[in-house]
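fold description:
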Amino acid sequence: MAVSFEDLGISKEDLAERVVETIAERYVNDTSFDENGRPDYTKPTALAERLKILVAERIDAGLKKVIDEHILVDAEDYLKTMMLQETNQWGEKKGGPYTLIEWLQKRATTYLTEQVDSSGYDKASKGYGWSGCQTRLTHIIHQHFHYHIEETLKAVVKDANQQIAGGIQKAVEVQLQNILAKVKVVAHTPQ
């Protein structure tokens, strides 16, 4: 008497699904078994790792496309057209509205043209005894030039010191050779 899979309660579709699942599992995972034949550990195969990378790249590309087409365009338009309104401490409007770009330009100009002392501090930072002598932009440029001049001079001095030390060493060697050439060693033995 022959026993079929249907007699065991397994349909042809279930059997096909299990076979495909087992084959796919073997291609995707490498399973190691212990001495009793039980699965010991499973690690992904090279194929699984490559599939994982390809899927991640596809997902990233799809997300980038959606973000570029829908989100960034809307955000850029919003930031270009967004209007800001300056208010006083009670929330009353003062002045006219302006865009974010206009506000950023105004703040940058205010920041760079603000008076600072020789250390770069504004009046709010120092308070009593403060005396502004230059704009912040002037101070930033001065600090930048000072830094580069200082670094260049350090390199020049280091190079000069190395050359001077080498020259002194050569001069000492020459003088020692001259002295050794003039010295005559004579050995006398008593008779």
